[in-house]
């Protein structure tokens, strides 16, 4: 275990979870009311995004002026540029689930702290969905290897 | 709705951006929760790599965040969650499978991807917002 890296990740995760809490993002009804223009519209998600994008863009700009991260290694920034079916199809499936319940992965995990059975059930199902994707893709990769 | 609440959300967002910047500038990693959680799940399925423990540390931190909120404000954040058991399970499965297939969620594509002006992330964000808006409309106003 690389303790400095694990500690930095713990710190980043804690700030992230606190920011989600402060922004009202752990409340699925806040998210669903943002997505519902014909109900009790709640704009808080837009304020959270504005704050997050401003600071995150500054952090990214800073990273461009450095050769490597503070703890060494290299910056792992996704290099993929192609907009493909997986990206759009996966995002569409995610959008259905997000709209149904009002939880996305960050709040689903941070929300475990609240001790609500409904959030626990959702988050377990989400992790099962992630595992199902890995198993499905693993088999697809194997099939493609056989076909080629 | 009161403006202090909006300012609180703006500040909460700024902290999320700070967290993403810390992870990027210190560890060189993108703060995408679905990627981190998916990597952990993949690790448990048998591919534990060198990053398993820092992913786990990030996830533990995410859960600690609301407890910091408890210490500061004297109460845990409020959450109102509607939806029957089948909705919760189907919703969770779709969010898990979809974010892995689409290589990201609200944090990875939404916060980190848009911040670096990624075309892919822009396409993903437009897609999941549009589909979520239609889903909520159908549930709340069409059914």
Give a brief outline of the structure.
Chain A has 148 residues and is mostly helical. Chain A is 70% helix and 0% strand. The chains are: A mainly alpha (148), B mainly alpha (143).
Key descriptive features of the protein:
heterodimer; A: 148 residues; mainly alpha; 6 helices; 70% helix; globular; B: 143 residues
What would you say this structure looks like, in words?
Chain A has 148 residues and is mostly helical. Chain A is built from six helices and no strands. The longest helix of chain A has 31 residues, at 117-147. The termini of chain A are far apart. Chain B has 143 residues and is mainly α. Chain B is globular. The mean pLDDT of chain B is 95.
- Number-wise, the strands of chain A total 0
Q: What kind of oligomer do you see? A: heterodimer
Largest protein-protein interface: A-B, 114 and 111 residues
> Main beta sheet of chain A, described?
none
Shape of chain A: globular
Tell me the fraction of residues in β-strands of chain B, as a range. under 5%
In whole angstroms, the N-to-C terminal distance of chain A is 38 Å
H/I helix tally of chain A:
6
Anisotropy-based shape of chain B: globular
Low-pLDDT windows of residues of chain B: none
Gyration radius from CA atoms of chain B, angstroms: 17 Å
Overall average residue pLDDT of chain B: 95
State mean pLDDT of chain A (0 to 100 scale). 94
Task: Give the fraction of residues assigned to helices of chain B.
Answer: over 70%
Write the layout of secondary structure elements.
The complex is a heterodimer of chains A (148) and B (143).
Chain A: H1 3-22, H2 28-35, H3 44-64, H4 85-101, H5 105-110, H6 117-147
Helix pairs in contact in A: 2-4
Chain B: H1 3-27, H2 33-47, H3 52-73, H4 85-101, H5 106-115, H6 119-142
